[in-house]
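Hey, resending since the last one bounced:
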Amino acid sequence: MQCVLLRLTDNQIIDNGTRYCESIKQLQLDLPATKGWLIITTSDLPSDFSVDTYTIVNGELVRLSTEVIAEREAAALLAAEQAAATTEIARLKEYLTATDWAVVKCLEIGTPLAQAYPELATRRIEARARINELQRGGGYART
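The structure tokens again:
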């Protein structure tokens, strides 16, 4: 028989795994640390099961409402967008650090950066503007 182990935290499914076993009872004996896991047979698992669409209520597998699923998906999307913004900010700051030499050189010779390195000056201004936009939260789509 094939069994599915669902790891729980506060009755939310955070992980799942499949094991082959003679019975659920045998699997519970083989895995003494099954506390915090719900073990069910694959035949009892709903065909549309995913850890994102089901939760556990009183030891039973229950499908989440469409609204809760949509809220979780929106939160996951926002987190991914914020992570992408953080990565982009780090990349832009690395660029600014890597081109600081030109600012120092221009200060030493008394020439404006825009005059000595016009393309570099423009890219640095754009990088700073993009960093500011991302830090204000405008760098990712909002629904």
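The mean pLDDT is 79.

Sorry for the duplicate.
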